[in-house]
């Protein structure tokens, strides 16, 4: 079985995340794809503003109808800084016979050599990076054992931090997020 994992803060989840997940599912014929919300991303210490419960609820609201996407709350339950290698060790123990793929944006390639325990990580998982069609691969440090696959996707220029700023400025989130996520943000008065 081929299993993909897409990590992120998802604060809030938006169509950029969901389209990326669909692109990878379709192009790599994955059997399962997990969205993995981080408790605390190591390279973005101030990126999360809403609670674990709020982020998980928004993610569930955005994907509850889509049986192709699953949510793993492993990193949220574990707490602390969410290093990918820790999560991959956990998933590898759960799925020892399966092919595991960690999905990243092409912008992470130049930083990949700095990830915690990268030498072990590349032995446990293959990486799929998302890039716009016909755009060159970003330069990156060679890592022994790295198995890297390109996914030409429909990358949309949306970021969660931009969306939080839009809410703060009283601007609409329509066409950026699923309607249920927008309704949840409004009901909980998040990001104000």
Automatic annotation (TrEMBL):
GO terms for molecular function: ATP binding; nicotinate-nucleotide adenylyltransferase activity. GO terms for biological process: NAD+ biosynthetic process. The keyword Secreted does not apply. The keyword Transferase applies. InterPro entries: Cyt_trans-like, NadD/NMNAT, Rossmann-like_a/b/a_fold. Residues 6-166 form the Cytidyltransferase-like domain. Its EC number is 2.7.7.18. It comes from the Bacteria. Keywords: ATP-binding, NAD, Nucleotide-binding, Nucleotidyltransferase, Pyridine nucleotide biosynthesis, Transferase. It holds the Pfam family CTP_transf_like. Pathway: Cofactor biosynthesis; NAD(+) biosynthesis; deamido-NAD(+) from nicotinate D-ribonucleotide: step 1/1. Catalyzes the reversible adenylation of nicotinate mononucleotide (NaMN) to nicotinic acid adenine dinucleotide (NaAD). PANTHER family: NICOTINATE-NUCLEOTIDE ADENYLYLTRANSFERASE-RELATED, PHOSPHOPANTETHEINE ADENYLYLTRANSFERASE. Belongs to the NadD family. This is Probable nicotinate-nucleotide adenylyltransferase. It comes from Oleiharenicola lentus. The gene is nadD.
């Amino acid at each position: 079985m081929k299993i993909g994992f897409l990590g992120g803060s998802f604060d809030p989840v938006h169509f950029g995340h969901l389209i990326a997940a669909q692109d990878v599912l379709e192009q790599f014929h994955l059997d399962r794809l997990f969205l993995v919300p981080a408790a605390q991303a190591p390279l973005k210490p101030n990126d999360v503003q809403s609670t674990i419960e709020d982020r998980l609820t928004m993610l569930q609201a955005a994907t509850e109808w889509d049986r192709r996407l699953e949510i793993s709350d492993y990193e949220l339950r574990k707490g602390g800084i969410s290093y990918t290698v820790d999560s991959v060790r956990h998933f590898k123990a759960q799925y020892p016979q399966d092919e595991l793929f960690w999905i990243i944006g092409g912008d992470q390639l130049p930083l990949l050599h700095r990830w915690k325990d990268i030498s072990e990580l590349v032995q446990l998982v293959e990486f799929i990076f998302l890039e716009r069609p016909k755009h060159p691969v970003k330069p990156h440090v060679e890592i022994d054992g790295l198995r890297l696959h390109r996914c030409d996707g429909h990358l949309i220029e949306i970021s969660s931090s931009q969306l939080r700023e839009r809410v703060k400025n009283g601007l609409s989130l329509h066409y950026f997020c699923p309607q249920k996520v927008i309704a949840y943000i409004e009901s909980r008065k998040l990001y104000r």
